[in-house]
Amino acid sequence: MAGFVAAFVLVLGPFAGAPENVISGTVLLAFAGGWALLAVLSLCWTEQPQRWAAAPAGLMALFPFQQKQRMADHRTLILLR
């Protein structure tokens, strides 16, 4: 939920009107932050840490840097299916 809210606020706030590649990168980084938050807070506050949440956080954090000023190519879309 935190990732969705962060993405919503960032896209409608400081990144409003930005090119599509900037917006998609911002959304991916916001969702990565939400997954990382889940992983870290579950380590601190629960008896059952959700370490698996670090994997989607890492992958989503890397995707914006792989785009390099273009949308993801077909190979990436096929991998996500």
Describe, in short, the structure shown.
This protein is an all-alpha fold and 81 residues long. The chain has helices at residues 2-12, 20-45, 54-67, 74-80.
> Helical segment tally?
4
Question: How many strands in all?
Answer: 0
By secondary-structure content and strand pairing, the structural class works out as: mainly alpha
User: How many domains in all?
Assistant: 1
Cα end-to-end separation? 23 Å
β-strand amount? under 5%
Radius of gyration computed on alpha carbons: 14 Å
pLDDT averaged over residues: 80
> Mind summarizing the main beta sheet?
none
Q: Which stretches are low in confidence, meaning pLDDT under 50 for 5 or more residues running?
A: none
Give the % helix. Answer: over 70%
What is the H/E order? Answer: HHHH
The geometry reads as flat
